[in-house]
Each structure stands twice: as C-alpha cells, then as structure tokens.
Specification:
This is X8 domain-containing protein. With 505 residues, the protein is an alpha/beta fold. Helices cover 35% and strands 10% of the residues. The structure holds 2-acetamido-2-deoxy-beta-D-glucopyranose (NAG) (5 copies). One 2-acetamido-2-deoxy-beta-D-glucopyranose (NAG) binds next to loops.
Amino acid sequence: MKVPEGISMKRVKAPAALIGVLWVFLLAIGKNVCLAEPLGVNWGDISRQPLPPGIVVKMLRDNNITRVKLFDADYETLKALVGTNIEVMVAAPNDMLKKLATSERAARDWVSANVTRYMFRGGVNIKYVAVGNEPFLIAYNGSYQNVTYPALVNIQKALEDAGHAGQVFATVPFNADVLCGPSVDCSVPSGGVFRPDIADLMVSITSALNRTGAPFSLNIYPFLSLALSPDFPIDYAFFGDFTLTDSATNAIYSNVFDASFDTLVSALTKAGFPDMHIIIGEIGWPTDGNKFANIQYAEKFNNQVMTHLASKKGTPLRPNREFDVYLFGLLDENLKSVDPGAFERHWGVFYYDGNPKYALDLSGQGSADVWPKPAVGVDYLEPRWCIVNPSAIVDADVLTKNVDYACQRTDCSALQEGGSCNALDTYIKASYAFNNYYQFNYQDKYACDFEGLATITSSDPSPGVRQCRFQIGLSYQPVTASSVRIQAESSAIVVLVLFVSSLLL
Ligand SMILES: *[C@@H]1O[C@H](CO)[C@@H](O)[C@H](O)[C@H]1NC(C)=O
Ligand SMILES: *[C@@H]1O[C@H](CO)[C@@H](O)[C@H](O)[C@H]1NC(C)=O
Ligand SMILES: *[C@@H]1O[C@H](CO)[C@@H](O)[C@H](O)[C@H]1NC(C)=O
Ligand SMILES: *[C@@H]1O[C@H](CO)[C@@H](O)[C@H](O)[C@H]1NC(C)=O
Ligand SMILES: *[C@@H]1O[C@H](CO)[C@@H](O)[C@H](O)[C@H]1NC(C)=O
C-alpha cells in the first residue's frame, strides 16, 4: 500500500507516541483493505449435466472462494476438495433425519462415512455438518418437527465420540420463517421472537448448538419478500434507499437483510443466547423466472451484499462485526423443483456451464467491472440447436402438445411469466422448449423430431445475447441418486409475511 506523502512527512517530525498511533491506524487500514473476506457459496448440483466436481473446485479456487456449503456428502465432490483447504459444510438431508434421530448407530455411521473418512492430514477441511435443511419450513407441515433435535444430538455425540469436538460442528440451517409468524407482532427487529409453534424446540436446539460452540445458521432472502408480496417496498430489499426506524431502540434500518438479522439477534437474546454466533447459510438473488429475477437486480444485490460484508459495519444490534455468509448459489440448477417458483433454477452467480452472469467482485473490495473467473475446460456438446422447422406446416394444437411434452421433461422456467423468454413469439418459445429437450438428451437426433415439427440448426437461434439464451448442453452424465438430492435441497418456500405486513403500517 502506498502511504500518502503528507502522512510520511508528518511521521518524520512526530513524537514516538504519535508514530505508534499512526502505525496502528495504518495497520487497521491495511487490514480492511488488503485482506479478502472469507466468502462462502452454496454448491448444489441438481442439474441434468452437472459440471464435474474437479472443474467446480478449480473455479472456486480461481475465485478465492474459501468456504462451501453442500447439500449432501457426495464422495466425488469431497474427493475433489481433498487438499484444497476450502472449508466445507457437509449435510444430512431432511429425509435422513428420522433415521439419525432414532438410531445412534446410524449417526455414528454417517459421521464415520461422511466426516471421519476425509479428516486425514491434507484431507478435506470439514468444519460443519448441516443436520437437515430448513426442516421447520412452514410448507413441510411439521414433518421434521419431532426428528430434527434428536438427530442433531445424535450427530453431535457421534462427532464427539469420533474425536471431532471443537473442530467439526453440527448445525441446522434454518429458514427465516423460524422467526415471528403470522400471529406475532414483529414490526420492528427488536420485537423478534421464535415462531410460537416451535419456540421451545428452537430453544432446545440453540442450547445444543451453544453447548458445542456451533453457530446458529439462518437463510435470509430479501428477493422472496419482494417476489411474494406485491406491497413490499423494493428499495428495502436492496441496501441504502429506504429506512425503517425501530421505535423501541431508535435503530435505523436501510435494508431487510439487517432487519432480519437483528430480528434473529432479538429472538436469541430473549431465549438467553445474546452472544450466539450467527452464520447466514444462504443469501442471494435469482436472474430468471420471475419479474423481479433478472441480471440487473441480482448484480446490484450481490454487489451490495459483498460491500456490506467488507465494510464490517455489522448491524445495529451487532455493530462492527463480520458476517459469515454463504451466497446462494454457485451454479444454476436446471432440475430443481419449481414448486416455489420458476426462479428456483436461476440462483447461480454462474450459469449452468460455469460462466459468470454479471460483474461481481467476490473479494468484497467493491471494484467495479470485476467479473468472477469462469470454469475452465468445460466439455460442451456440439454447437447445434433444435428449433421449430421454418418450413414445417404447423398445426397449433400439435405444436402445443409437443411443447408440453418437452417442457415436462426439461427446463422451461425461462418461458414462465416474468421469465426471459416469456414475451417472445410462440415459435421462438416452442423452439426454446424443443432445444432444451434436445440438449437434455445429449443432442440425440431422435430428440429433435416432435412429430416432424422440429429441425436441427448450426446457427445460434438465441434472440439476444443475454436474454433468452438457447443453451448448448454439456457432455457430462447426470449424477446418480439425484432423486435423493432433489429432496435434499428442496428449497426455500417462504412467505416472509413478518417483515412485510408490519413494515407498511
Ligand atoms: C486471489 O488471491 C490472490 C492472493 O491473495 C490474488 O493475487 C488474486 O488476485 C485473487 N484472485 C481473485 C480472482 O480475486
Ligand atoms: C453419507 O451421507 C450421505 C448424504 O447424507 C448419505 O446418503 C449416506 O447414507 C451417508 N453414509 C452413511 C454411511 O450414513
Ligand atoms: C402440507 O399440507 C398441504 C396442505 O394440506 C399439502 O398440500 C402439502 O403437500 C403438504 N406438504 C408436505 C410436505 O407434507
Ligand atoms: C410429533 O409429536 C407429536 C407429539 O408426540 C405428535 O402429536 C405429532 O403427530 C408428531 N408429528 C409427526 C410428524 O410425527
Ligand atoms: C452458551 O455457551 C457459553 C460458552 O460455553 C456458556 O458460557 C453459556 O452459559 C451458554 N449459554 C446458555 C444459555 O446455555
């Protein structure tokens, strides 16, 4: 770092004590500017042709990403992480919770196969085990309510018995819907409490986490607040242009992220855990499949998140602290469930093929026009696309039937309302669906027929460069047991009514 002339001039004449002060000052600046924040990302792979773990790990390293959160404990993935020093969160999916809750033996086997196995010198730097994923989501109707806590306790015990205490921590990634709830007045962050139906359970879980020194993990999604409630003030989803004053503390909030965080701090404080370490398990913004999901908003939001982290300002209730954050997500996932909305397949900072979508300075230093480094060595299929044959005589009903057929078997989320291909004409949309089906089937020529309506072309039919991209598939085979994973990562179906209804009063 270059020291400005004025300062070095002063240092020459300054008394020793002052020089000391100046040094501390400069060191402090040095710390803020020169050290990159440890950044985490969520790495899910519910895709038809997922990038091989080796390519993804190289991409993580090229981008100085030092933490990953996984949704399972896939062997190939962990093998690729051996020797990298990337800090890893492995996960036991929700559908394993019952077994882990009822059998200490199952928990021991899980830890042995998915943690201990990789903990050799120079192995995988496993730091956390996620026990379930958002198990108390309202949409799950309480299905995991009785099993999450005992599963956590059994995994903790298994980790301790295997000698990982103080090194590997079990936690439970929660959705923000563990807070407040429809019958609770959470109009300001200081009013935060746990959702009444699970409040006692949340205290037991937090106590178990606190006992081992594990963090509390919460997912926060300003996008969903906006997408799911038409009255939500858009500026509040971003950082800066909106303010809410907490009437009880006089703290001023300029974004729903800080407000959500402090709502949790308040809930934890009331439950007796004022100093509980908190990590943000997921935060991000999707780029397609909803009218608020686009590149511009995602770029703005994620850059603001990175700047907010780097500023170390913390929140009004936890000032001057760093956040531990995992961006959601690394790559688009074209087989994710779209029950919550078509946007679910478009959370990636990178497209399905590891190409970055927008400028984002992952070091958090806020540099403009810095793009994430793309994946290297990706194996694409041929530059060929499947489209509606321009010379075919098209019967509208037959076309519709064939588009439906393709869409049920591939990813048509960009065609949905608010999606990047939604406003285009019927033929382009049909071509988009046909092409995805063709690419999903590794460009098998029989996958581009559609009762004679389709034909293969070698000129890119995409109507725009960044809008409605017609994809070329990748040559990778689907990961086995992907059905298990689809359940494992079944996603954020949240209605964050809490911050919404209240805030508009
Ligand atoms: C990653 O970190 C290294 C060393 O600190 C630095 O030289 C490099 O520019 C960083 N790369 C990115 C993409 O930030
Ligand atoms: C290891 O973890 C994966 C993902 O949770 C799970 O499917 C598998 O059964 C685990 N292995 C054992 C022995 O429990
Ligand atoms: C929860 O209940 C709703 C309505 O009864 C139902 O549609 C849904 O499938 C249930 N979900 C689960 C995960 O059981
Ligand atoms: C959880 O336990 C309660 C009380 O024992 C019971 O009423 C409820 O049905 C159980 N829920 C599930 C999903 O098993
Ligand atoms: C949380 O853990 C800390 C450190 O072990 C301990 O001092 C504190 O009493 C615990 N808090 C509760 C409420 O159990």
